[in-house]
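Thread title: Can someone regenerate the structure for this chain?

I was given the following input by a collaborator and told the matching structure tokens would be attached. They weren't. Posting the sequence so someone can regenerate them.
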Amino acid sequence: MLIYGLKTCDTCRKALKSLPEARLVDIRAEGMPEPVLRRAAAQFGPDLVNRRSTTWRALSEEDRALAPETLIARQPAVMKRPLIDDGGTLYLGWSDEVRAALVG
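Best answer:
Regenerated them for you:
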């Protein structure tokens, strides 16, 4: 199981603590694998971008108009986190539903 996020993100840390078998992939340091980003963008569409983040608010209108995968490739911190890949099944965020599906 892989958790794509930021090592400084509190929500990613909570997910990692609840899922000890998972490995955190820091998308700022390691980058986001293009195939995973394409799958996530196809599955979650515009929901993949965290429009409440400080990073989003600092973006220009031109950057905000970019496709989610292009924007995240340029500005990884704008991705909603965590993105969890559990054997090919993708989960976005750390909601009660995601926790129930992954933790039990």
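The helical segments are 10-18, 34-44, 54-57, 61-64, 68-74, 96-103.
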